[in-house]
Design a protein that fits this description.
The protein is an alpha/beta fold and 94 residues long. The protein is 28% helix and 13% strand. It has a single domain, classed as Uridine Diphospho-n-acetylenolpyruvylglucosamine Reductase, domain 2.
Length: 94
């Protein structure tokens, strides 16, 4: 069973210098309106590969689910998380 992303986890990420914002509908709802997820917070795209590693390591240690989000087309409803935490990849570069 996965754990929710609580305030302690969010504060831990913020302490690592990772920008975490409050959940917003654009990150939680599938564009067709068929599915909606929940999240304790949205980790804004990290600036370095090390930050990605820190996010995933911290989530793994605490058994918190992570849903990467890139194009948000959600044609297969893969961008909405029924529970856990969503990640925006909007600032990632090749």
């Amino acid at each position: 069973m996965r754990n929710p992303a609580d305030q302690a986890f969010i504060k831990h990420l913020q302490g690592l210098g990772i920008d975490v914002i409050a959940p917003q509908p654009a990150y939680l709802e599938e564009p067709r309106g068929r599915y909606a997820g929940i999240a304790g917070g949205i980790a804004r795209p990290p600036q370095t590969v090390e930050q990605v590693s820190q996010i995933l390591s911290a989530a793994h240690e605490r058994r918190i689910g992570v849903v990467p989000m890139a194009g948000a087309r959600a044609l297969l409803a893969g961008s909405s998380s029924p529970r856990g935490r969503s990640r925006s990849c909007s600032r990632w570069r090749r």
